[in-house]
């Protein structure tokens, strides 16, 4: 059994090491679930994906996908990286549970610190904007969300509100964006309230395990990051890189996807080539000497 596992692990590494070279992760430590799954494909893939740099929860998610793929195909194929939704336990879409749809391509997606910035970039022609206003003051939050909703009126820009879901619902925002921690912390009825209101929902993800969790909610879009190193926030995971981004896009094909994290105009073409339909930027606009001119340059680079 160990010889078979070692052989399969070596085959996976030989087929995919070049693709995922240079990635850092935390070794996948054995868990009770791993010990209770003696399947040789699972054990080989768990060890290989850990060696390829996937963090523990992603290595385990991938290992189970490898096992299901081999069972579905009736054979182990080291060259075939898992990408079938069923192998990741992703159910077929249920229109009755899905959030309101948004365009497959949201275009340039600007993440902005306050309502004034939202208005500036909406007027500059940025098609999708997000208010990421950080405050613990409920009155200030409500004022900023209401001002941001007003600021995009007549511009055609789609406005997402980061985190502040109740204020976004009250103000009639186009959509809401939440992170994984926010998804876990939402009140029991919050997702249903957002869904039935017709408000769009975007969810941040940082790897396979979070993607599967987010996709089960059937959001309007999924954000994938951080693609490249970023100093804007401390990340629990290493930058994903283009190879992983392409693998994620293949698994989530059909779902609107937004790439985020350290992306500049010089990387737009490579990011688009992965199959991701939209690119989010922060510093490329808010740190630019002339943000309006920068927006036009980024829009041109996105094509």
Automatic annotation (TrEMBL):
Entry-linked Pfam families: TMP-TENI
Domain named Thiamine phosphate synthase/TenI: residues: 115-285
InterPro entries referenced in this protein's UniProt entry, alphabetically: Aldolase_TIM (IPR013785), ThiamineP_synth_sf (IPR036206), ThiamineP_synth_TenI (IPR022998)
Pathway listed: Cofactor biosynthesis; thiamine diphosphate biosynthesis
The entry's keywords: Thiamine biosynthesis
Lineage: superkingdom: Bacteria
Protein name: Thiamine phosphate synthase
Species name: Comamonas nitrativorans
């Amino acid at each position: 059994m160990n010889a078979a596992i070692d052989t399969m692990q070596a085959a996976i590494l030989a087929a995919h090491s070049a693709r995922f070279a240079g990635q850092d992760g935390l070794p996948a430590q054995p868990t009770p679930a791993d010990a209770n799954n003696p399947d040789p494909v699972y054990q080989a893939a768990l060890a290989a994906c850990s060696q390829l740099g996937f963090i523990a929860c992603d290595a385990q998610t991938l290992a189970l996908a490898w096992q299901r793929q081999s069972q579905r195909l009736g054979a182990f194929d080291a060259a075939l990286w898992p990408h079938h939704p069923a192998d990741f336990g992703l159910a077929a879409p249920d229109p009755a549970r899905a959030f309101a749809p948004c365009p497959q391509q949201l275009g340039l997606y600007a993440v902005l610190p306050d309502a004034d910035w939202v208005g500036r970039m909406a007027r500059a022609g940025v098609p999708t904007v997000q208010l990421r206003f950080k405050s613990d003051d409920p009155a200030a939050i409500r004022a900023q969300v209401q001002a941001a909703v007003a600021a995009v009126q007549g511009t055609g820009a789609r406005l997402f509100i980061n985190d502040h879901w109740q204020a976004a619902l009250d103000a009639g925002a186009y959509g809401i964006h939440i992170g994984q921690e926010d998804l876990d912390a939402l009140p029991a009825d919050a997702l249903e309230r957002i869904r039935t209101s017709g408000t769009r929902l975007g969810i941040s993800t940082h790897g396979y395990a979070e993607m599967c969790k987010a996709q089960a909610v059937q959001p309007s879009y999924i954000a994938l990051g951080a693609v490249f190193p970023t100093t804007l926030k401390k990340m629990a995971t290493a930058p994903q890189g283009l190879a992983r981004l392409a693998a994620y896009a293949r698994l989530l094909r059909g779902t609107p996807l937004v790439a985020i994290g350290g992306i500049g105009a010089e990387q737009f073409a490579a990011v688009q080539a992965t199959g991701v339909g939209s690119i989010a930027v922060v510093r490329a606009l808010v740190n630019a000497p002339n943000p309006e001119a920068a927006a036009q340059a980024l829009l041109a680079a996105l094509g």
